[in-house]
Amino acid sequence: QPFLGIESSCDETAAALLDGNGRILAEAVFSQTESHARFGGVVPEIAARAHLGRLPPLVRGVLREAGVEPRDLAGVAATAGPGLIGGLVVGATFAKGLALGAGIPFLGINHLEAHALTARLPGLFPEPPAFPYLLLLLSGGHCQCVAVHGLGRYERLGTTLDDAVGEAFDKSAKLMGLPWPGGPHLERLAAEGDARAVSLPRPMLGREGCDFSFSGLKTAVAQAVSRGHRHADIAAAFQASVAAVLADRARRAHSMLPGATALVVAGGVAANRAVRAALEAATPLRLLAPPVRLCTDNAVMVAWAGLERFRAGQRDAVALAPRPRWPMAELQPPAG
Ligand code: ATP
Ligand code: MG
Ligand code: FE
């Protein structure tokens, strides 16, 4: 029986339909990037309104594409946090309404858990990672290293002390006059530069544990820009610094979880080729990088996390309130 997932925690409105085995039947994402670009970041009010307008047609679209009626669904899962409260309320309320109207179960899913479980999606990799595995979550809003011990069993090994890594890409790109979001632009610019032409710090390199820090690197980029270095060289040096730091943190993480079966990456920064190459070389672990559309915010991952929990017996009350802050470590295995 098909299972529906809904994502609306940040600036992507998304819906996806899986079959009972977790195979993708239909998926759709509406990215609001254009609406926010001229403000240089996500504007919560604009995001909430866009979710409200876009979500109903997106859900209708994936249902129609798969020829599925709401009453045919095994259940519906929506992101219930962490994220921007307006979008969370829109997505969760829509899912609850659908659940009540069609007489099907509702599940509220943690967005970070959804990123963490994506690599287990059937058919994605020849062999899905077995527990425990390491997750590096590298997005615009999150920068964490997590030990994934099991469904609902997450241990945060490290997090950023200041900026998220995607945020560092975006802020540094902005200093070089690149459009928002700057990550992909910075990667393109870096390809034309010489990383050795500019010396930038590599924060936390060699430090105990698995924490990150990127604000000093961003400040150094600002100084390099004002000193008149070629932007392409700065971009290349910045990217090399980030890649080296992430590789170092991945090695630390592996030493903290020696029994890990794989290193899984998620978040938009996982699209960066220099980052991927550095992580590939950092540890002897198998690096599992889902396709970019499943690394950035999407509803397939929400549907899949929902389906894993649904199969384990979880059902949530429609009274469940979305949580703008919801650390992964607070999650529990499904009680079923
Ligand atoms: P959240 O943190 O809530 O998951 P988000 O929208 O900030 O949401 P994503 O959509 O996963 O995160 O990723 C967007 C981030 O990834 C942006 O900071 C963007 O610049 C960065 N990014 C995307 N492509 C690349 C790339 N090729 N190189 C570096 N950074 C990239
Ligand atoms: Mg996004
Ligand atoms: Fe995300």
From TrEMBL:
InterPro entries (UniProt xref): ATPase_NBD (IPR043129), Gcp-like_dom (IPR000905), KAE1/TsaD (IPR017861), TsaD (IPR022450)
One of the record's GO molecular function terms: tRNA N(6)-L-threonylcarbamoyladenine synthase activity
The family this protein is said to belong to: Belongs to the KAE1 / TsaD family.
Gene3D superfamilies cross-referenced by the UniProt entry: 3.30.420.40
Pfam family, one: TsaD
Cellular compartments annotated: Cytoplasm
Described function: Required for the formation of a threonylcarbamoyl group on adenosine at position 37 (t(6)A37) in tRNAs that read codons beginning with adenine. Is involved in the transfer of the threonylcarbamoyl moiety of threonylcarbamoyl-AMP (TC-AMP) to the N6 group of A37, together with TsaE and TsaB. TsaD likely plays a direct catalytic role in this reaction.
Enzyme class: transferase
Top-rank taxon: Bacteria
Keyword set, alphabetical order: Acyltransferase, Cytoplasm, Iron, Metal-binding, Transferase, tRNA processing
UniProt remark on cofactor binding: Binds 1 Fe(2+) ion per subunit.
Reactions catalysed: L-threonylcarbamoyladenylate + adenosine(37) in tRNA = N(6)-L-threonylcarbamoyladenosine(37) in tRNA + AMP + H(+)
Protein name as annotated: tRNA N6-adenosine threonylcarbamoyltransferase
SUPFAM superfamilies associated with the record: Actin-like ATPase domain
UniProt domain Gcp-like: residue ranges: 24-304
